[in-house]
Design a protein that fits this description.
Structural class: alpha/beta
CATH superfamily of the domain at 262-506: Metal-dependent hydrolases
CATH topology of the domain at 262-506: TIM Barrel
Radius of gyration: 24 Å
CATH class of the domain at 262-506: Alpha Beta
Protein name: Exoenzymes regulatory protein AepA
Helix content: 25-40%
Domain Amidohydrolase: 62-555
Pfam families: Amidohydro_3
InterPro entries: Amidohydro_3 (IPR013108), Metal-dep_hydrolase_composite (IPR011059), Metal_Hydrolase (IPR032466), YtcJ-like (IPR033932)
Strand content: 15-25%
Largest sheet: 9 strands, mixed
Shape: globular
CATH architecture of the domain at 262-506: Alpha-Beta Barrel
Organism: Streptomyces formicae
């Protein structure tokens, strides 16, 4: 709204004063920058000059002096695991990138404080940082008398000691489950490393968190996301940590007492071999509330393109894994047969349920697109924007295909920068493939809708500002000599759009959120710098001062530190 029209609006609506006015800073709009905005009933009213905004000030209006700060649309995270992240904070926490010696020391210290016989549960580890291939004997040396189970950085592999294997009944005669692998030593004994569904099978023997712990973990994570300006998110796999019923109880319980401030899309996990999935999906609407929409299904198609070699790849991996059959050694694992997948996606599409796929390897991406195309052919065009998640590697031909059939791409985790896990990926697939790792630039040039996801806690922080910077630089936050897939770098404007207008389209909310304009919901954040004016290598350090959802102040950095918001009552 230009100042001229803002003045007219303010003059014509003085009988209804604003609830909140933000002024004294810079406000990013779709067409440029403004000085102020007003909010009434959760809706943005006036966006324009300071004088026009202050004419909407009445006896009960809260006027917030921005003191030069910047106002931006609220950010979206379209792939996150908040319960998983919150639970990990409460377990044996191994910092990402830890060496073998540090990892074993942390595990031993945690075990020494645990109750007698209690499991040591936690993570994270990756082979590149450890500097050695892990096995059960390493954990046995420091914790021989109680079960230990550690997840890797990706959450797709686990590392167990002998006590954990014994309790789970896993031994030399245990077969690999469909879609998973028990790594084995030269004698055929389980090594203590489990991949994909084998890791899930072992985890069934470990204690599940209590409902109170699940709810506390979720509440902590919700607050953490608000502190970074995340006003909408997609829970990418309900049930991944504590089972679907416990996790749905946590969401509905917190929503009932008004503790879920963000807009949330829940993805309910579907598997062709688990009948509970169908029951949860059939009853999905009973978990809906004003801010929580359980209208998405998650389908895991492969693993990860690390030393595990479980992502499904078109071209073979650089090396092989002993004890795997030829296809699994060379091309990874496709978890669901294409014919089964096509039928499932067609059914969900007919039901009006959006499907999010886990597809890290390019062969898995191709299978996901094949299923979407089958659904389009069977059902015709529809409203569901089926979303292919992760997309670490995507064949060039499949980018054009996605645009043609109306599928969308989600790039995650925030790993398009040098890191130990990326070194692991590079060793697995080779330098040629890394030239096109997370091909965001090609996706945008191919006119596909691209959205971002943290996959937190695969990354150590849910910080979206770090992701925005590194999408532009393809370097570590703050810059550096090394880069990771630099040919796929994009502009800052493009990166910011991924987190705002693009994500709003994916969530079916583009008419309500993602932009600062009159008539839009007042989901906005106040930050301590203008990321469009500082050097790009400083964007990662952007600090959120306030976060608003529908005009409600849901995070205030000053209040949290005991200083109070910069606000004066009228």
């Amino acid at each position: 709204m230009t100042d001229q029209y803002a003045d007219q609006y303010a003059d014509q609506h003085t009988d209804q004063y604003a609830d909140t006015i933000l002024t004294g800073g810079r406000v990013k709009t779709s067409s440029g920058w403004a000085e102020a905005l007003t909010v009434r009933g959760g809706i943005i009213e006036v966006v324009g000059g300071r004088e026009a905004a202050l004419r909407r000030c009445g006896p009960g209006t809260r006027v917030i002096d921005l003191d030069g700060a910047t106002v931006l649309p609220g950010l979206h995270d379209v792939h996150v695991h908040p319960i998983y992240a919150g639970i990990r904070e409460r377990r044996c926490k191994v910092p990402q990138g830890s060496t073998l010696a540090d990892t074993l020391r942390i595990v031993a210290e945690h075990a020494s404080r645990a109750a007698p016989g209690a499991w040591v549960l936690g993570g994270q580890w990756d082979t590149f940082a450890l500097g050695a291939v892990p096995d059960r004997t390493m954990l046995d040396a420091v914790v021989p008398d109680r079960p230990v189970l550690l997840e890797d950085t990706s959450g797709h592999s686990s590392w167990a000691n002998s006590a954990a294997l014994r309790l789970a009944g896993i031994g030399p005669g245990t077969p690999d489950p469909p879609g998973g692998v028990f790594e084995r030593d030269a004698a055929g004994n389980p090594s203590g490393i489990q991949r994909e569904t084998a890791a899930d099978l072992l985890a069934l023997s470990a204690p599940k968190p209590a409902d109170e712990e699940v709810e506390a973990a979720l509440e902590w994570s919700l607050g953490e996301m608000l502190s970074y300006g995340i006003t909408s998110f997609t829970e990418a796999a309900v049930g991944f940590t504590a089972g679907p019923r416990a996790e749905l109880r946590a969401y509905t319980g917190l929503a009932a007492r008004g503790a879920v401030k963000q807009r949330v899309r829940l993805c309910l996990v579907w598997s062709p071999v688990d009948p509970l999935c169908e029951e949860v999906i059939a009853n999905r609407n009973r978990y809906a509330s004003r801010r929580v929409a359980p209208d998405c299904v998650k389908i895991f198609l492969d693993g990860v393109p690390t030393d595990s070699h479980t992502a499904a790849m078109i071209e073979p991996y650089e090396n092989t894994v002993a004890g795997r059959d030829d296809e699994a050694r060379r091309h990874g694992l496709l978890a669901i047969a294409p014919a089964v997948l096509d039928r499932a996606v067609t059914r969900f599409d007919r039901m009006g349920i959006t499907v999010k796929f886990h597809a890290a390897g390019d062969a898995a991406v191709r299978a996901a697109l094949g299923a979407v195309e089958a659904a389009r052919e069977a059902n015709g065009p529809g409203p569901c924007m089926h979303n292919v998640g992760h997309c670490t590697f995507v064949a060039k031909a499949d980018i054009a295909r996605a645009a043609r059939i109306g599928a969308t791409f989600e790039v995650s985790p925030y790993l398009w920068q040098p890191s130990p896990i990326c070194s692991d990926i590079a060793a697995a697939v080779g330098p040629a493939a890394i030239e096109r790792v997370w091909p965001v630039r090609e996706m945008l040039e191919g006119r596909t809708l691209v959205v971002p996801g943290s996959d937190w806690c695969v990354v150590p922080s849910v910080n979206p500002w770090s992701a925005i910077e590194t999408l532009v630089t393809r370097q570590r936050p703050g810059g550096g000599a090394e880069s990771f897939g630099p040919s796929q770098a994009i502009t800052l404007d493009q990166a910011f759009d991924l987190f705002t207008v693009n994500s709003a389209r994916q969530e079916g909310m583009a008419h309500r959120v993602g932009r600062i304009e009159p008539g839009m919901l007042a989901d906005v954040v106040v930050v301590d710098r203008n990321p469009f004016e500082v050097p790009i290598t400083q964007v990662h350090a952007t600090g959120v001062k306030m976060t608003f959802v529908e005009g409600e102040l849901v995070f205030d950095a000053d209040a949290d530190s005991g200083r109070g918001a910069a606000e004066r009552p009228s």
